[in-house]
Design goal:
By secondary structure, the chain is mainly α. Helix content is 68%, strand content 0%. The protein is flat and about 80 Å long.
C-alpha cells in the first residue's frame, strides 16, 4: 500500500463523504444526488492529490466523462438506459482510480489495464481497514499517557455507584425522569435501532469506497511501454522486428 503524507486527513475526508452520501441517497431516489456526489468525490480526490503532492496525470478527462454519465442518471428514467449509465459511471470511475497518475490510458495495454482493475477492486475494499488499523495503532497509549488516564478511570469507577444511587432517588421522586430511566435500562432508544444501523452501514460503505479509491489513486501510476526496445550489448534491435507502415515505407526499407 502507498505510504501517505496525511493519512488522517484522507480517512476524515472519506468519512465526511460517507455522511454526505447518507444524506443524499438514504430513502431517496438517485436523481440529482448522483452528479452532486460524484462532483464532490472528484473535487476531494484532486484536493487529496495536492495534499499528498501527487498531482493527477493526463487522464483527468475520465472524471469529466464520469460526471457526464452521472448527470444522465438524473435525466433518464428508462431502466435499460439507467443500467447502462450506471455501468459506464462505475467503469469510468474505476479507470480514473487506476490511471490517476498513469500515462495516457490509450497507450496502456488492455490486458494490463484489466488486471490492474481486478486488483484495484480488491484493494479498494481492504486498504481503508488496513490504514485505519495502522493509524489507531499509532495512538500513544503507553507509559505516561496511561498513567495520566488512570485518575480519570478511577473517577469513573467511583462515580458510577453514586450516579446509580442518585438516579434511583430521582426516579422515585419524578415520573418523567423515571420513564427516562426505564427506557435506558430496557434499551429503548429514542430512535429506531434498525434505522440507525442502516445509516451506519451506508456511511461506512461509501466512506470505505471513497477512502479505498483515493488510496489506490495515490499509488504510482502505470507507464506505457516504449515504442522501441532499448538496445544493449547483448540485445540488438533487429530490422525484421520493425513494423511496416504505409507512410514512410521507403525509410523502413533502408
Amino acid at each position: 500500500m502507498t505510504s501517505l503524507r496525511a493519512p488522517n486527513l484522507l480517512l476524515g475526508v472519506a468519512l465526511l463523504l460517507g455522511v454526505v452520501a447518507d444524506l443524499l441517497f438514504y430513502g431517496r431516489g438517485v436523481g440529482i444526488s448522483a452528479p452532486i456526489f460524484v462532483a464532490l468525490g472528484l473535487f476531494t480526490l484532486h484536493l487529496i492529490g495536492r495534499a499528498e503532492q501527487r498531482p493527477p496525470g493526463v487522464n483527468r478527462w475520465l472524471g469529466l466523462a464520469a460526471l457526464s454519465f452521472a448527470v444522465w442518471l438524473a435525466v433518464r428514467a428508462e431502466p435499460l438506459l439507467v443500467m447502462l449509465n450506471w455501468l459506464a459511471l462505475i467503469g469510468l470511475l474505476l479507470l480514473l482510480t487506476i490511471s490517476f497518475r498513469s500515462d495516457l490510458i490509450f497507450r496502456l495495454p488492455f490486458v494490463r489495464l484489466l488486471g490492474r482493475a481486478f486488483r484495484a477492486s480488491f484493494e479498494i475494499g481492504v486498504y481503508p481497514f488496513v490504514l485505519a488499523v495502522r493509524q489507531l495503532g499509532r495512538i500513544p497509549l503507553r507509559g505516561r499517557q496511561l498513567r495520566s488516564l488512570a485518575p480519570v478511570l478511577r473517577g469513573v469507577l467511583l462515580a458510577t455507584p453514586l450516579l446509580l444511587l442518585f438516579g434511583g432517588l430521582l426516579a422515585s421522586a419524578d415520573s418523567i425522569f423515571a420513564s427516562y430511566m426505564r427506557d435506558l435500562l430496557s434499551l429503548q432508544l429514542p430512535f429506531d435501532l434498525w434505522t440507525g444501523m442502516a445509516h451506519t452501514l451506508m456511511v461506512g460503505f461509501f466512506a470505505c469506497l471513497a477512502a479505498g479509491g483515493m488510496i489506490v489513486a495515490m499509488g504510482d501510476g502505470m507507464r506505457a511501454p516504449s515504442a522501441l526496445p532499448a538496445e544493449g550489448e547483448t540485445e540488438r534491435l533487429e530490422r525484421s522486428g520493425l513494423s511496416w507502415r504505409f507512410l514512410g515505407s521507403t525509410e523502413a526499407l533502408t
